[in-house]
Amino acid sequence: MGRALGQDAYAEGMATQEPSGAPSALTSSALAAIRRTSAVDTVRARISLAVDLGLLAPGERLPNVQATAAALGVGEITVRRALGALEREGVVQRRPGRTGGTFIVERPRRRTVAQVAAYREDSDRVHRLIDERIVLEAGFAQLAAERIGRPGLDRLDECIREMDAAESWAEFHAGDRRFHLALAEGAGLPSALGMYERVTGELYAYFLPYPLDYLRRSNEQHKAIRAALAARDAASAAALLRDHVAELHHSMYVGLADTAERGEDG
User: Fold this and answer.
1) Could you tell me if 113 and 169 are in contact, meaning their C-beta atoms sit under 8 angstroms apart?
2) Which ranges in 31-168 belong to alpha helices (H)?
3) Of the chain's two ends, which shows fewer C-beta atoms within 10 Å, N or C?
4) What keywords appear on the UniProt entry (predicted)?
5) How many Å apart are CA 247 and CA 146, to the nearest integer?
């Protein structure tokens, strides 16, 4: 979905309020705890939380600064500042040279970023955003099965190939955003795209890096959705899309954090 979702502007301006009377997502962003967190600290929190939840493994190499910035919806300077802070905090290590880059340290310090609390505070809001996305995307899938043409299906195929070939979570995320936007546009209901872009734009502000093998498995769901659309099977397309998005309740940090906390308590 790229910059069309307004994710860059949202993430860079988290600390600002929307003008009075401006359109908002179904769930008001003015109430989000991350709105009180700087762009640098949101990057620190998202990478640190991914480490805490085991989504980023010790020794794992992060995508380059440009790809990381695009995936997290911030500027490259913001990513460089965040990585510098995480290095000082013992979460990542930057190595120079042709084989260098930024890596999660072998024994990363955990729970070092206080701003992670904003993400935990927003957990109810994230669940509501997921539900709103389910309603919108299931409806888009229903209509797209009746209206999408060959160019639209070709765009979905291109995104699927891109995700299959992705070498990092950042590359995969770019293809995933484009896939879902292409499906929404295939519904032929442009008047609803603005609402969809606001909901997904706000939800993407909470996405974390994920293991590539997990993401590739999710691409199999994309292929099944595409097949249902090509077969003009509206009921199956809507059900597959609903289940695909509903899985975020468990696979996003809100579900993973709950599981981790229960494990610690037990």
Assistant:
1) no
2) 39-52, 65-72, 76-88, 116-121, 123-147, 150-165
3) C
4) DNA-binding, Transcription, Transcription regulation
5) 25
Query: CB under 8 Å, gap of 24 or more: what pairs does 96-100 form?
Result: none
* Best CA proximity match to 170, nearest among 58, 76, 66: 66
C-alpha–C-alpha distance, residues 254 and 258, integer Å: 6
The DSSP H or E segment spanning 240 is: helix 234-246
pTM score, two decimals?
0.82
Least confident residue range of 166-170, 207-211, 247-251, 255-259: 255-259
Q: How many helices (H) and strands (E) does the chain have?
A: 13, 2
CA distance 215 to 49: 18
pLDDT category of residue 4 using cuts at 50, 70 and 90? very low
